[in-house]
Amino acid sequence: MLYYLFEYLDKLNFPGAGMFQYISFRSGMAIIFSLLIALIYGKKVIRLLQRMQIGEEVRDLGLEGQMQKKGTPTMGGIIILGSIVIPVLLFAKLHNIYIILMLITTVWLGTIGFIDDYIKVFKKDKKGLAGRFKIMGQIGLGLIVGLTLYFSEDAVIRDTHLTSNIKTEMVIQEESFGIDESAKHPMDVKSTKTTIPFFKNNEADYAGLVKFLGEGASKNWAWVVFVIVVIFIITAVSNGANMTDGLDGLATGTSAIIGVTLGILAYLSGNLIYANYLNIMYIPHTGELVVFAAAFMGATVGFLWYNSYPAQVFMGDTGSLSLGGIIAVFAILIHKELLIPILCGIFLVENLSVMMQVSYFKYTKKKFGEGRRIFKMAPLHHHYQIKGFPEAKIVTRFWIIGIILAVLTIVTLKIR
Question: What are the angstrom distances between the C-alpha of 91 and each of 32, 46, 99?
């Protein structure tokens, strides 16, 4: 909203109004505002949750320090959501298709998580929202994101290899000053291509998965494959973040690291100069996502102030489902979703540990009459808790691994 106000003031030659044309300035303001909202209003939200006696119900699993968390306010994810949405509304270009999709994702999954937490806390039903309804909500979001990206004329990539004068293109780089986004560039094309890591010709087309149908049919049915992939990624990553939210600060800190990385990737992909230098896919107008990434980083770091060990508040599904979904959709928008197994390695391992534990237990129970376990407890972070590692040490080491994975993700842009 402020972007449009200062854009108008800039036309009136109001001093300093032109600063709002720069993504770097608006991103800086977004991260500052999101931090302040999380820190200042977060404290008030925690007090409100305490007065309403919205506390975490803890099941005794014999973990060290577990019962001390009983009664800690939950549903703190509303702090994260507010700290993301408000700065984005203030500083981003709200007509940008990618910003619109990110706002829809945040509110959509935040609502699903809130309903789940509400049922657990107020209805005293430990199971919360039935799993099938969560899946339906994630599928619904996947359909919105996938179909919008495939059919919207505003979601395109630019084939810089076909651009006759790349230097002229760089001079008018819209990331810097912003040009009319309704203007169509002759090299902007609809595409289902995505970036694949570690390969020299590092682009793959989802249409190739249905190439056996023939060239014409593959183009007609490519959207089906693309939407299915989008649904799968959103569901997997949002559930992975939900699994990771089991120790104080673990999901929050991991998400903050991922958010920084996605912000860097969005900046590079949305900047013609850097995209050309790195020989990566240039996606017009995705540079605006840096503003969203900045708000996301500020919100998660600000929430970590209260969520670090020992936590004063838990995010609940209101936060964890949203964080995972935001990360998934963000990666899809910048065509870097195949980097998720590396970047979100913590989420992936946590998810796999649960799947492996459950599958192996069922298999051994059927074969031997007695269920056996691979890990002492799943998700994986609880395995290390039972082995005697202090909670703070587990979280810190997972963060370090997350940083290593983030660096590796960025390095893949040059390692081919």
Answer: 11, 26, 11
Q: What is the pLDDT of residues 150-173, one digit of tens each?
A: 999 888 888 655 444 544 444 444
255 and 241 in contact (C-beta within 8 Å)? yes
Whether a cis peptide bond, with omega within 30° of 0, leads into 310 is yes
Question: Residues 91, 3: contact at Cβ < 8 Å?
Answer: yes
According to DSSP, the β-strands at 157-158 and 203-205 are: unpaired
For residue 389, the tally of other CB atoms under 10 A from its CB is: 15
Concatenated DSSP letters of 42-92: HHHHHHHHHHTT-B--------TT-GGGTT-B--THHHHHHHHHHHHHHHS
**Residue 297: φ, ψ to 5°:** -65, -45
Half-sphere exposure of 390 (CA within 13 A, CB side): 5
Residue among 42, 40, 41 nearest 313 (CA): 42
Give the helix ranges, DSSP H, for 92-195.
97-122, 131-151, 166-171, 174-177
Contact 29, 91 (CB under 8 A): yes
CA neighbor of 307 nearest in space, from 60, 76, 65: 76
Query: Residue 188: which pLDDT band, with cuts at 50, 70 and 90?
Result: confident
| Band of residue 2 on the pLDDT scale cut at 50, 70, 90 | confident
